Inverse folding.
């Protein structure tokens, strides 16, 4: 069972129900990943999502990645691949990790791509969830695998390929 803990600050439109968007994006990413069993595991599986402003993301990016600018999404995995493979084994809650989105960066990128903030946030949650599951885009081959998976997941939502839109890659 997937549990999603969401915290959004005042920079994110409080009239929008982000919970449904975050849950559907995270579930879709998990279902298409190498660990689909996590979506219906008897063991509780949790993702924490913070939707905040650029300044908070800049601080975290500087502290943990030594990059002194905000970025669209940060992911902090808390489980390793061995734990993910054994998710159906009885045990305590499996914490996949934290995903943090920056409102200003997300909004600017959405405008550049000609998509809604909600659609771009969906992409960033998918992207961040895949990072929590061990996917990355450090090496070209791994980047192609991750991007292909993102495109496939987003196509399931009826969204266009985000890597063929106006701007370049995320994170």
């Amino acid at each position: 069972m997937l549990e999603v803990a969401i915290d959004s600050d005042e920079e994110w439109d409080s009239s929008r129900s982000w919970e449904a968007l975050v849950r559907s994006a995270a579930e879709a990413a998990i279902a298409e990943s190498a660990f689909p069993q996590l979506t219906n595991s008897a063991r509780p599986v949790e993702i924490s999502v913070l939707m905040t402003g650029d300044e908070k993301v800049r601080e975290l990016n500087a502290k943990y990645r030594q990059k002194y600018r905000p970025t669209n999404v940060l992911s902090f995995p808390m489980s390793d691949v061995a734990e993910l493979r054994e998710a159906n084994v009885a045990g305590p809650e499996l914490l996949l990790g934290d995903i943090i989105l920056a409102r200003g960066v997300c909004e600017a990128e959405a405008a550049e791509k000609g998509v809604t903030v909600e659609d771009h946030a969906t992409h960033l949650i998918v992207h961040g969830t895949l990072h929590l599951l061990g996917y990355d885009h450090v090496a070209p081959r791994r980047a192609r695998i991750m991007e292909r998976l993102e495109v496939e997941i987003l196509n399931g939502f009826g969204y266009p390929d985000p890597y063929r839109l106006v701007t370049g890659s995320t994170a």
Residues 34 and 141 are 16 Å apart (CA to CA). Strands lie at 2-8, 45-52, 73-77, 94-102. The domain at 2-156 is CATH 3.40.390.30 (Collagenase (Catalytic Domain)).
